[in-house]
Amino acid sequence: MKYTQSTLDKLENILGESEYVVRYERGTFQSGWCLLEARRVVVLNKFLNIEGRINTLMEIIPQLNIQFDKLTLESQKLYEEVVKKSVTTAE
């Protein structure tokens, strides 16, 4: 996967299509991110570079309740790729 703004936008679209809000904020994050599940808000450290943001979203997305049916075809393909990569990494 390429570490470009386009890839970051596509990952953010997966969350947006599943009614999650992605925010970039300043704060004391232990892992670079925070998840407010009740409000469906993902907060990332705004000081992360593009590679850090992409890696963080790829770590978070498999843990969330993503509504696969609401995703566009392009987002569904990327979501499956992210989940597959997550499973491979965990093994």
Query: Radius of gyration, Cα only, in angstroms?
Result: 12 Å
Classify the beta-strand content into a percent band: 15-25%
The percentage helix is 40-55%
Order of SSEs, N→C? HEEEHH
Main β-sheet, spatial strand arrangement: 1-3-2
Count, helices: 3
Number of strands: 3
Q: What general form does the structure show?
A: globular
Which structural class fits the helix and strand makeup?
Answer: alpha+beta
> Unreliable segments (pLDDT under 50, ≥5 consecutive)?
none
The first-to-last residue Cα distance is 19 Å
How much is the average pLDDT? 89
Instruction: Summarize the biggest pleated sheet.
Output: 3 strands, mixed
Features:
alpha+beta, 91 residues, three-stranded mixed β-sheet, 3 strands, globular, single chain, 46% helix, 15% strand
Polypeptide structure, described:
The chain is an alpha+beta fold. The chain has three helices and three strands, in the order H-E-E-E-H-H. Strands 1-3-2 form a three-stranded mixed beta sheet, with helices on one face. The longest helix has 18 residues, at 73-90. It is globular and about 35 Å long. The two termini are 19 Å apart.
Task: Give a quick rundown of the structure.
The chain has helices at 5-17, 50-60, 73-90; strands at 21-25, 33-36, 41-45. The chain is α+β, with helices and mostly antiparallel strands and 91 residues long. The longest helix is centred in the C-terminal third of the chain and has 18 residues, at 73-90.
Chart the SSEs and their pairings.
Layout: H1 5-17, E1 21-25, E2 33-36, E3 41-45, H2 50-60, H3 73-90
Parallel strand pairs: 1-3
Antiparallel strand pairs: 2-3
Helix pairs in contact: 1-2, 1-3
